[in-house]
Amino acid sequence: MAERQERNNTEEVVYEAAVDLMAARGYHGTSLRDVARVVGVQMSSLYYYYPSKQDMLKAIMRRTMHDLHAFVEPAMQAESTPRTQLLAGIRAHVLFHAERGRETIITDSEIRALEGDNREEIIALRDRYSQLFTAILKAGKREGAFTFGDAHVATNALMTMCTGVATWYRPSGRRSLKQIADQLGQLFLDGVLTASPQPA
Hints:
10 helices, elongated, 2 domains
């Protein structure tokens, strides 16, 4: 039992080191030797956990996508209307991306570095996650709550707008993370026009 716990702890340390390095340097700027040096293990030990840098990148992306899905979906399901579901989903998405910024930056920016089956697996997870928002947008349109052209275009626009918070949010900023999340939800749903535009 103790040996298993130590192995799990070491794997987590390796994972965190890989996240730190890839978030700072990018996938191509990070080597397995860099990770081993930071952790303080031999390359042979590193291979025990991650046989290749591709496996390391896939592990980061897989965990991030699974955790993101598990965090956002219940928040949506707790609400009863498309509007409140969408707002809850946006809020949860933004909170996750700000709090897990290093991992989400890697997952969002390094998809092009994945190869073959690794790429297909992560794209499938990403599409499955995006479908949460697409389904709510379509439901809202059917009920007359939302109006837009193509649901996939709307979903992609929403994801792009909200995902960027991982790169620019600072805890020391003027607005709290919850305030930012709520404002992004309002911007997406209501835009910036007033209900009755006033003359200049």
